[in-house]
Amino acid sequence: MADRTADPDKLKFYSYTVFTQLSGAVTAGMIHLGDKLGLFSSLADADSPLTTTELATRTGLDERWVREWAYNQAAAKLITTESDDEGIERFWVTPEAVAVLARPDHPAYGMGMFHRFPQTMGALEQMPSSFVSGLGHDYDSHGPEGAVGIERSFEPWNKHNLIPTVLPALDGVVEALESGISVADIGCGAGGAILLMADAFPKSIFVGYDISGHALERADNRLAKARVPNARFVDLRGSQLPNDHSIDLITTFDCIHDMTDPQGMMCKIREAIAPGGSWLLVDIKARDSFAENVEKNPMAALLYGMSILSCMSSALSSPGGAGLGTLGLPESRAREMAEVAGFTRFRKLDVDHSVNAFYEIRP
Question: Could you tell me which of 248, 278, 85 has the C-alpha nearest to residue 182?
Fold first, then answer.
């Protein structure tokens, strides 16, 4: 029998590795609190570093709790601290931290995933039964805040890049949008992309489709406030995509890998799209194998874990679901599935994004 005695030095290093993961999870919870309680925005708005007493006063919170939170964030090197000659500690955020933690209008803003962190972690309660039954849970199982978190995750980058960068990368699409065409965004979520495009191209008609009741409620509320007359939202649970090749531009943002029947959806997209139309497929940047994902993506562990708690769970939420998962749609598979659906042209777009890949697919 092989010797299973643990090497003392390796044991210490392995224990450190394990508890580093726990440290990250706990700190993520503290980031959620910092966002929810306005701590990051208060630090960002301050003209000079703040003591925890000053920070507590600005936010209307108890100083002792604020101090412990600040210690966690400073220890994790997410906020910065210094002590003066009298030992008084002050805290501030760097310009980079401001962009990621406190400015929703910045393309690098990253609080969306942390907004829905409690709901994501809450999915752990459902996972043992899923591991036994094989069935997952759709996005509405994360509740209304789950929809808000997804909205806050993707819209900051889209606001800065969808109209000026992504759409111009598609062949002839901007000119067509300016003249007036029919557009469908499948998996539209809370409607951010639809509202952006509808406002930018008033001569075109935009329809957003989704199956999330929580997301569609937010989309309808936002539409009412935006007063964009050339846009509407449709619940696909009680409706279907047109199958008469009448849609000139179809977009899918980070949703195909979440679907229980992605191949079936691609076939429906093929039936809906006009002969000269374009399909903008945006999905997670993935490689062909686990080894390549680990080698090329420093966030591979995070993405595989999020797949269990969210993406793959959604993709297995119906019996027989495909279960692609977060990293389940590399370019090779997307190309193959598009060909099966009847598309003949597939082009990867030169759009720089840290997480997503962009493809133009045409009949």
Answer: 248
